[in-house]
Design brief:
With 160 residues, the protein is mostly helical. Helices cover 83% and strands 0% of the residues.
């Protein structure tokens, strides 16, 4: 886990990149009905704006309250590291899925030129995204990003 603000920013950049890219591919695949090169291209085209939005959302809106919730209700500072990682990850995924699902619904309505079904699209996107985002975060993205992060930045090398 990051030890200071600089480490936290680097970690967030890596984690957001991984999660937004994967979830973009997943959502475009759901929308297009197949996973192929066209799907990946479409996901990549929409990725930059979604990434910037997710980074800002994570850094300025979700991170503080999610960590506060995790350490107030789920774990204590003396809890094992794995418990803290799982608690913070789960606390981050829930609001990120809710808000990014709204982002995706808005994006779809803008492309289609019809905002009538926005609420239905958003509410149906939330469970679809949650069932992918939480396991992906806990099983793949989290361990992968932590390994890459600590491999590139051993503890104590990024100063506060």
């Amino acid at each position: 886990m990051p030890r200071n603000k600089r480490e936290s920013l680097i970690y967030t950049v890596l984690m957001c990149f991984t999660m937004v890219l994967w979830m973009s591919i997943y959502n475009v695949t759901l929308h297009m009905g197949a996973l192929n090169l066209t799907t990946i291209r479409e996901a990549w085209i929409g990725f930059p704006i979604a990434y910037v939005f997710a980074m800002c959302l994570d850094w300025f809106v979700v991170s503080g309250p999610a960590k506060g919730f995790a350490f107030r209700f789920l774990v204590k500072p003396e809890s094992p590291v794995l418990h803290k990682v799982i608690a913070v990850s789960c606390s981050m995924v829930v609001p990120m899925v809710i808000i990014m699902s709204l982002y995706g619904a808005l994006e779809g309505c803008v492309k289609g030129g019809n905002f009538g079904p926005l609420l239905i699209i958003w509410l149906t996107n939330i469970p679809k995204n949650f069932v992918m985002a939480l396991p992906f975060q806990l099983i793949i993205a989290g361990p992968l990003v932590r390994k890459v992060f600590r491999g590139a930045f051993p503890e104590g090398t990024v100063l506060a």
